[in-house]
Design goal:
This protein has helices at residues 45-52, 74-80, 96-106, 111-124, 140-152, 170-187, 198-204, 222-229, 241-255, 274-287, 302-315, and strands at residues 5-14, 19-29, 34-38, 60-65, 68-69, 81-84, 158-162, 190-195, 207-212, 215-220, 232-238, 260-263, 266-271, 292-298. By secondary structure, the chain is α/β, with parallel strands linked by helices. The chain folds into 2 domains: 5-220, Rossmann fold, CATH 3.40.50.300; 227-315, UreE, C-terminal domain (Alpha-Beta Plaits), CATH 3.30.70. The strands form 3 sheets. A 6-stranded mixed beta sheet has the order 6-7-8-3-9-10, with helices on both faces. The protein has a 4-stranded antiparallel beta sheet with strand order 2-1-4-5, covered by helices on one side. Helix 3 (96-106) packs across helix 4 and helix 4 crosses helix 5 (140-152). The protein is elongated and about 80 Å long. The chain binds adenosine-5'-triphosphate and magnesium ion. Magnesium ion (MG) binds next to helix 1.
């Protein structure tokens, strides 16, 4: 048994609507690695998770999880994984404690062992005080923490988490981040996490793949991706179109063609060091008597990253998506 995930040319086309949800996706997650799949709504994240956790079959390619083929040996795969799906069927009448004990009995724990494990897990996910309440009355954050506890019952070697923090408030999000880091660092659990938040992937993952439209568009460590993207964005708007075009030309000469993007009457410049280069941008435009309406410094969001990557691929004459 190894804690690896290996995916080669994986594809999934849903007959219904003829949707190509996953297109020729390949990647490897090493044992003990924390890997994030970052992408917007409809990118193919949940579909990939469902294939890797043996819930649905791929229509092309191959995947092994913990050394076992997901199609050939699904029951072996299931033995080593924990899964927290985006949509979970939870019985609202059970209490949190009962849910965990039920899960433990499914995994073959004795009644006493199930009780012990439930106590440990309630402690870990900080649900001890609400353990006797019905799950139907839990808040979203409590449900997510309970989901996490359920996935940990059998101490999985590999953990799949589909958007575990979407919709949570910052303090609940931090509690889940902390627990995931601990699992990865102390237990060497391999973690495959999907998210729409760049910040989450950046803060947790050793490596990130960005998925859009069923395709992986970039892979790297957070540092590598940010170096590719630029650490900061300078966004400028102008009073006249003439100035806008003049500025685009000047800034492209200085920062490179792929670092400057004009969209929706806003010019975005991807820079390494925002505070320094903001001044440089202002100076360059001033020298040419270009009138600036607004100028902003910000950190890139997922949208900015997609814009940048798509722009680079277009420049190389590739097409992205359909
Ligand atoms: N059972 C299904 N039948 C038909 N199409 C599906 C099915 N499940 C997903 N799709 C489609 O496949 C594409 C990818 O969906 P998927 O749920 O994998 O995206 P996602 O990245 O998880 O998005 P989100 O962030 O919204 O959860 C979408 O276009 C979706 O509509
Ligand atoms: Mg999803």
């Amino acid at each position: 048994m190894n804690g690896k995930i290996e995916v080669e040319h994986l594809s999934k086309t849903f007959k219904k609507g003829n949707v190509q949800a996953v297109k020729d996706v390949s990647f490897t997650v090493e044992e003990g690695e924390f890997f994030a799949f970052l992408g917007p709504n409809g990118a193919g994240k949940s579909t990939t998770v469902q294939i890797l956790t043996t819930l649905i079959n791929a229509t092309g390619g191959k995947a092994t999880v913990a050394g076992h083929d997901v199609i050939g040996e699904p029951e072996k795969v299931r033995r080593y994984i924990g899964v927290a799906l985006q949509e979970t069927g939870v019985d609202p009448d059970l209490t949190g404690r009962e849910m965990i004990e039920l899960h433990a009995s499914i995994f073959g724990f004795s009644k006493q062992d199930a009780k012990t494990r439930a106590n440990e897990l309630l402690e870990i996910v900080q649900l001890k005080e609400s353990a006797e309440r019905r799950v139907g009355n839990y808040s979203g954050g409590m449900r997510r923490r309970l989901d996490l506890a359920l996935t940990l019952v059998n101490e999985p070697k590999i953990l799949f988490l589909d958007e575990p923090t979407t919709g949570l408030d910052p303090s609940n999000r931090m509690a889940i981040w902390k627990e995931l880091r601990r699992l990865n660092e102390e237990n060497h659990t391999t973690i495959f996490l999907t998210t729409q938040y760049l910040e989450e992937a950046d803060s947790l993952a050793h490596r990130i793949s960005i998925i859009d439209n069923g395709e992986i568009v970039a892979t790297g460590t957070p540092k590598e991706l940010k170096a590719q993207i630029g650490n900061d964005l300078v966004t400028i708007s102008f009073y006249s179109e003439e100035d806008e075009q003049k500025a685009e030309q000047i800034l492209m000469e200085r920062f490179g063609q792929s670092e400057v993007i004009l969209q929706n009457k806003k010019l975005t410049v991807y820079v390494e060091d925002g505070t320094k280069q903001l001044l440089e941008v202002v100076r360059l435009l001033d020298q040419q008597d270009i009138q600036v309406e607004t100028i902003n410094l910000s950190s890139p969001t997922l949208d900015d990253i997609f814009l940048k990557i798509t722009n680079e691929q277009e420049e190389r004459g590739e097409t992205v998506g359909e």
